[in-house]
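Quick start: what a row looks like.
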Amino acid sequence: MTHLVSTEELLSRRILVIDDEDANVLLLKTLLDREGYRQTLCLTDPSEALDTFIRFDPHIVLLDLMMPGTDGYQLLEAFRRQSKTDEFRPVLVLTADTTVNARRRALSLGARDFVGKPFDIVEIALRIANLLEMQVLYERLAEAKTKASLE
């Protein structure tokens, strides 16, 4: 199968990981490093997440929901307020709260995917790559649309 997006293009994307558990952050960081992603930033303090989101400008966010202080739902709302209406910046929620209400609430607040903990690391790697590939294709489509409107 021919891929529309090169591996190199995916691996150069910026990834922000936000989880208050050091073990989860270490697991995700190790996974991302092993896959070859070169621009990852990990946070265990959710109070730093919004400023980091603005400064780092990630292509994708891996987000826990249940955190002290500022929880993942509040961050989803804050990220949505900071994002442009015409951009696709996926948030992959990774959480132990797998209730129907948690899934629905996260997805309604802008999460693009939802995975329960404990998770399969191979599946997470595939989901990250899929979301990043969709993002690249979305950007290409937006560029083509802009170019066509200028002609």
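That is the whole record. Residues 100 and 106 are 10 Å apart (CA to CA). The mean pLDDT is 93.
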